[in-house]
Amino acid sequence: MISGEDNELVARVVASQDTRAFGELIRRHQSHVRNFLRKLSGDMSAADDLAQDCFMRAWDKLHTYSGSGSFIGWLLKIAYTTFLQSKRKSRRYAEILEQVGHVSEAESRTHAAPVDEVTDLDKFLAVLSEEERAIMVMSYACGLSHREISQATAMPVGSVKSVIFRGKEKIRTSFDIKDHQHG
Amino acid sequence: MTSKIINMAERMKDEQDRLLESMFELAPIADDGFSEQIVRRVRRKLWVRRITLPVAVVLGLVVASRPMAALVSGVYELLLSMPGDLVPSLEGSLPSLQLIVTGALVLGVAMLSLSMLED
Q1: Which of A37, A41, A103, B110 lies at a 20 to 30 A Cα distance from A81?
Q2: Chain B residues within 8 A of A26 when measuring between CB atoms
Q3: Cα gap A48→A31, rounded to integer Å
Q4: DSSP 8-state code for residue B2
Q5: What's the CATH code of the domain at A127?
């Protein structure tokens, strides 16, 4: 275990390509990144693959981290971009396969895969759009501030706030949640 | 009265946020070798990056050695065919073709070794 703040570890990685310091950064933040991607994609193994890709990208781009925001905010920005890109890619392949008259592999795998345990949170997230889901998870599960979410999603702070408001309303109306009850 | 309403609204908002936070609370995921796997990938990537350039240079030298030797021998012959009064002491001072090629290869390998040692 290596001690030190995230920024110190980042500096060590950038200065001397210290893989041990990078390993410590991963150990500290892997849970948030994996949870975020799992809730976003709804597929545990695909989310873990995306998390790996996310950390590999983080390694390549670490020199661009300015240290102004939190490191987890910066990581979640990469995770979100990785998720969106992978989704675009799989959609493109699905379209190509549809054109040639095949069911996409991803699609068939989704149908064949055993369904993971559906939690209350999964039900809440199901009523949200993809963007709302990402922002709500960043805000309430990962504890990011509105400003950090704004940086991670490249949206103005005002839009982030309105997405959160909309998401809350959707959850409340869909599940008839009062102040102290849910489910 | 108005401030009371605002305070109540703020408080309600906070309660709602706390409720959402508890709803969104996610159990931490155990590392279980996840970070080690990525670090291994990163180390492999670094190793590949380090080895790619020297290997490419060696391959390039191997591929280029024949045309390079032909070029050197061409230049050498050209110099020899020049009139004697233009290059009076050329024949004695020029190193042999083999020496030139060997020298170039030794220089290349030495530079490669140095760059690898630096890495």
Answers
A1: A103
A2: 34-35, 38-39
A3: 10
A4: H
A5: 1.10.10.10
Q: Show which residues on chain B lie within 8 Å of chain A, measured between beta carbons.
A: 12, 15-17, 19-21, 23-26, 28-29, 31, 34-39, 41-43, 45-46
**pLDDT (tens digit, 0 to 9) for every residue of chain A, 183 residues total?**
566 789 999 999 999 999 999 999 999 999 999 999 998 988 888 999 999 999 999 999 999 998 888 899 999 999 999 999 998 887 777 777 777 765 555 555 544 444 456 777 888 888 899 899 999 999 988 889 999 999 899 999 999 999 999 998 888 888 776 554 443
| Close Cβ partners of B20 (under 8 Å, ≥ 6 residues apart) | A136, A140, A168, A171
Q: Which residues contact B16 (CB under 8 A, 6 or more apart)?
A: A168, A179
Entry field: residues in chain B? 119
The whole-angstrom separation of Cα B57 and Cα A46 is 39
More confident residue, A19 or B23: A19
pTM value is: 0.69
Q: Are residues A138 and A172 in the same domain?
A: yes
In a domain, residue B13? The reply is no
Q: Same domain, yes or no, for A102 and A57?
A: yes
Q: How many domains does chain A have?
A: 2
Domain residues for A86?
A: 1-114
Partners of residue B32 in chain A, C-beta under 8 Å: none
Domain that holds residue B110: 51-118
Both A49 and A83 in one domain: the answer is yes
Contacts of A35 in chain B (CB under 8 A): 26, 28-29
Contact A141 B24 (CB under 8 A): yes
Answer yes or no: is A182 within a domain: no
Q: Please check whether residues A106 and A122 belong to one and the same domain.
A: no
At residue B84, what is the residue type?
G
- Interface ipTM above 0.90: no
